[in-house]
């Protein structure tokens, strides 16, 4: 019952499913490494999806739509940044407010587009490679979002670990008082990190509304922003583990659909819970083995300069 | 999350109604009616169709009514609070439009004997609680027949939401329709455990197609599966709304919910003071279940579908007519009889020929 064609199709679906999560969680990882916990991911994603769709529909350009989605995610992240970073409000409350605002705004923006659809983002086709058995479609037959997600992942991993900017960002997240004493603009850096998070969430939203299911429907993110947040925690704030977590979650959520299709009689309720279970267990085991570095020490703590 | 959101909406709509700035006498004449939706009105599926019905009420009854709605209300305790707030805000007629709102509706109804409630798809009533539903299984029998004619692989792919009687009855009706054309039809069922998650519905459709299903049916609310079918050149059936725009070359027909006639009639009854608790289960004949135009199929298949539809309307064909056997072979309905409504509404078993288990059993 398993042949190369099905395995190839499953792999291709897994990559697509994981990409949304990877994009959204990557941005949040950067924000959190700088010390800000932004629970507004779901809100920024859905606004990205709505604005991206509206722009692409109006202009006929998917690229323009994607850019608009990124900007919209950033704009909403600035609301959060203004509250949580510059007014030093509670980050959890501000993040929740951002999500609620985003869901409402997106519904409003998208209201006129219900029942319409677009031609989704084109998929790569390289003669000879895309037709490769099993891995061809998964590796060489995806849309641009997938390849961008890998570029972003590499850029984030490299920047955090190997560059001065990354070092400063981590310093701000670990000990904002010390970073401030060294003369680093803590709030400015955090704002930029949060904006990067907003941009990534907006991009993830665009992936949903322009490539994955190219239409607009309210609440189409269906909680993926929250999963992205959880992935960041379980990855112990490390980009490569985040990649593993996103792909594991994507893999199990696609595989469980196939298992059901084969009619093996495993309760579907259990299978639906499986992606969450598998991801939590795997990432907990990984971080336990690595007797983990915990959260950035200043995560969630508002910074107020002494004068 | 949705809790806070829906609460905010409920409060806001309450305030909006209270502060409408109308003279008291005139305001009192207006009937306030409210709708509670399980999904977003922008889902282009179940909740969208209910909201179309609400708009039809506004259009038909004009300034005699004032309508409001709360979307995205989670089934369970959360719903009770939302319904309670709507009752307190002065709504005299409240439609709760999802199966999971049954207990909350009854609880709130007990506390507000002067408010009329209408609960969709449930089976528990009270003096001020009516139930209403539509016989979607009539449409599903027809699409089963079409599927059996159109499928080359002999396999239907079915995207299901939750294992509740209505969904199970839908699967059975489709299978019975299919078997009436081809006794060897197979069905693959994938439960997504959600009414609305476009990406997941799309994944489910693709998984089914990858596994050899070449006709896709769904009992979830977004057009994602139709879009996925169109992308893979496979035929499919729309759900709740006419989804032809999402599958111009794929949609065979769609089982469209039209709540407008019922909503207008019931609201008018409250205005006239003739409203009483009732249980209405309308089908194709009553205009509650509408089959979207039969497209993308040969003329003989179209003709067969129209004939079946006419027979259902005329009452000469019942989708659950005997003989019907359960999976283990037990005969449930004898030849010449049909399954009683109450047995359809509490169905928790698959008919013979479905090679799978009802989840959780």
Your description of this structure?
Chain B: InterPro entries: ABC-Purine-Binding, Peripla_BP_I, PnrA-like. The complex is a heterodimer of chains A (307) and B (361). Chain A has 307 residues and is mainly α. Chain A has a single domain (4-289), classed as ABC transporter involved in vitamin B12 uptake, BtuC (Orthogonal Bundle), CATH 1.10.3470. Chain A has helices at 4-33, 41-59, 62-86, 91-110, 136-140, 144-162, 164-174, 176-181, 186-212, 224-234, 239-261, 268-289. Chain A is globular. Chain A starts with a helix and ends in an 18-residue tail after the last helix. Chain B is α/β, with parallel strands linked by helices. Chain B folds into 2 domains: 2-134, Rossmann fold; 136-256 and 291-345, Rossmann fold (3-Layer(aba) Sandwich), CATH 3.40.50. Chain B has helices at residues 2-18, 24-29, 46-61, 77-88, 102-111, 136-150, 165-181, 198-210, 224-231, 260-272, 299-314, 341-345; strands at residues 31-36, 65-70, 93-96, 116-120, 129-134, 155-160, 186-191, 215-218, 235-240, 251-257, 279-282, 289-291, 324-325, 331-333. In chain B, the strands form 3 sheets. Chain B has a 6-stranded parallel beta sheet, sandwiched between helices. The longest helix of chain B has 17 residues, at 2-18. Classes of the chains: A mainly alpha (307), B alpha/beta (361). Chains A and B meet through helix 1, helix 4, helix 11 and helix 12 of A and helix 1, strand 7, helix 8 and helix 9 of B.
